[in-house]
Each structure stands twice: as structure tokens, then as C-alpha cells.
User: What shape does this take?
Amino acid sequence: MSDHPSDHHGADGTGDDDAARARATWERMLRPMLGDEGAREAVEALESAGLDPSQMAKAAGMSQDPAAMQAMMAQVQRLMTTPAEGGVNWTLAHDVARQTAHQGGDPSVTAADGARVTSALSVADLWLDAATDLAPAGGARSAWSRAQWVEATLETWKRLTGPVASSVSEALAEVLTSGEGLMGGPSGLGGLPDGALPGGMGDPATMLRSLGSSVFGLQVGQAAGTLAREVFGSSDTGLPLLETPGTALVPRNVADFAEGLEAEDGEVLAFLAVRESAHARLYARVPWLRAHVLGLVEEYARGITIDLERMEESVRSIDPSDPDALREALSGGVFAPSVTPEQDGALQRLETALALVEGWVEDVTARAVAPHLPHGVPLREMMRRRRAAGGPAEHVFSTLVGLRLRPKRLREAATLMATLVSEGGAEARESVWEHPDLLPTAEDLDQPTTFTARREQARAADAEMDAALADLLDGGSGDGGDTGADPKE
Assistant: This one.
């Protein structure tokens, strides 16, 4: 008997030829991972489980072209052998993010563009010195390509999406390999006996966890790459994406945004540089803020649960050999986590914190550019509308991890910041960042213009309570020291 099924051809028609070619195709694809014997046994195991190699090849869109096959084999080998970190194939996420960022072109930053950006960021810090007491962030001032933006921010995306991805990957494997799920039962991988996948591929659940981590990595990579084509710098999402202090702008995206605006390109660049620098100052000079914001994301992620029944029902008709189907399922919210009341509270606090950050940045930017930029007001309003509309990448991240990147209460937060300045100057505005317990709440944003009065009333009430408690501990009646009794008695 020949060692390769491709040597066998049917004499009475093309059906046997197609099946033989399909078996040979799968074996060639698996040989780099499993060796000759392991590849043959793997194909036989799939056939014994009721899976037709020729139909699987058609479903996967496999080409018989040798070059295309070689590329596919390399891709599959990476897909199945790259270890997942925290439920995500980050190697795949990184590659997809860079490829997506490059779509439409991603020219390297020229020396002239770099000089313009770093000069604008330097001037921005000078303007901001007159608008806030917070010192400059320090660190590098940089001009990035879109690919460089991906490289600089991917570590933070790992932290934000990893916990959710792990839960989704485990749930996906459970649904696909058990019960009446997509691949469960006697005719699917879930019905294969232990050790049926030879050559070190492991059990079906392990293989499908790897698939799930790859699909999730693909989604995160696409979202990060799409963001790289939209953002102006490191601060557009409101999240602290940089691990260390610094400021950066993406000249290509700034230029695209400036097209068709009444303001000159230099004015648009200066405005965006001030926003970027203000955001960096806040996170650099309020030492607890970055940990607070990312901690709220992690608090939400720790409670992630997946509705397995809903997932199983949703993926029942998905072809497991078609990664696009799984990707569409993810982006369509099939695997969206169930939100508990505790998680909803964390999300609300996160939204409020992001709104306060954006409100502070907006107020400080407006005051900093007012003496210098004639179009500062319309640019501010345009940025508000842009944040309110959102973009495709924001919607993807919202679906993947329930992370809402747009603050709902931006106008209220900006009003609160402006009110604080009018009542007590910049010092009063900056005082809200003294401690996380002092941050305005969602209820405070409901009535931003009376925030100071209500906080003073609360402080007075607390002081009165403290005095009464101290008096009680000293042996008094607890009414502040006035007992109404004759001291001689």
C-alpha cells in the first residue's frame, strides 16, 4: 500500500480522485506538525469520525496551488502550535493588528513630520502651563506610524482583554466538544475517544481552546489595527494606553482628519497636540489614576461568566472549518458575557471616570488654546461629536469585553470642571484628583453646577457627626458638648 493517499485514484469517476486529493492536501498540511505517520493517522481519525476530507477542504476554501498550500500550512501550523497567553493568541493578534493598520497605507514618519509633531507637543506644554498647575508628563515626545502605535499600546490591550478572552476560550471549547454542541456527539470531534488526535495535537478540547484563542486574537488584532487608523495619538480612547509617561501623535491620521476643515493643518496639529499633552499630564501627575481606571476594567473582567446555553444555541449551525464564521459570531455578540449587578456597577464607575478625564482634558485644552487658535471652539465641538459617534473598533471592543470606550457624560463632566474653575480657580478643578474617594460620582454629574455646594454640605455634616462622636467618646451626650445640665450637678 502506498504511503500517500494521493497515489490512489478512482477509475470510474472523479469522486475518488477528489477524495484522494483532499486526503493528500490534509496530510501535506499536517505533516510539518505531526510527521508522516501522525498526519496519516490524523486524517484517518477524522474520516472514522464521519468527516469527509474533500468536503472539509471545500468548506475551508483550500487551494490546490502549491504556493497557496505552503502558505496555508504555515498559517495552520502557527495557529495550532503558538501557545496562548491568557486565552489569546497574542502572536496572531500582533500580526493581524499590524496588517490591519497597514491597510490603506502606513508610510514611515519622515524627519520633517517628526520635527513638526515634536515641536507641536513642546509648544503644547508651554500653553498648558498657563492653564493647569499639573506639571508636564515628561518622557519622550514622538511621532508614530500606525504600526508603531500598535507596538506601543498592545501590552495594555492584553491587560484589558485577556481575562475576558480566557473565559470565552474555555466556554467555546466546552460548547464545541460536549453534548449536542457544534462538534459534540458521535459525528464530531467531541465524539472522538481520548487520544484520537495523534502526533501531540492533544485532545479535541485542547485543540479547540487553541482555535478559540486564535479567533479571539484575530478579533483583538483587527480592532487594535482599526483603531491605529483612526486615532490621533495615545489618548483618543481615554484609557491610559502607554506603560510609561510620554506623548505621541500619528501624523498620517492627523493629516487625514485636517482635510476639508476650515482650520489650517498647523492649527489642527496644535489643537490635537494640546489634547494629547493634557491627557498625559493628568495620568502622569495623578499617580493613582491609571491603576484606578485599569482596576475598574479588571474588576469587571473578574466576574465574567458566559451563558453556555445561549452560546450553544448560537453556534450550532457554524461550520468549525470556517474561521470567518467564528469571527462573525464573536463580532455579532454570540459570546458576549453576561453582566452581573456588580459588574454593571464597575462599568458605571469606569464610564464616570473616563467622562471626568475627558471633561478635564477638554476644559484645560480650551483654556490653553483660547489665546492662540482662532478655531479652538469649533475644533472642540468637532471632537465632541467624533467621540459621541464612535468608530468600528470601539464597537468591536464593546462586543468583545463589554468595554465602552466613549464616556456618555462628557458634556456634564466638562460643565462640572468649568464650574469648579469659576468658583475656585484651577486649584479647585485639580482638587478632584487628590484621592479616588473624592472623585465626583455619576449622581454628581446629574447636577454638575451645584457640585461644590453639595460637597460642602456633606463635609459640614461629616464634621458635625465627627464632633458629636468625639463628644460621646469623651463622656458627653453626643450633642456636641452642650448637655444642658448644671456642671455642678
Summary: The chain has three domains: 5-81, 90-401, 410-473. The chain has 18 helices and two strands.
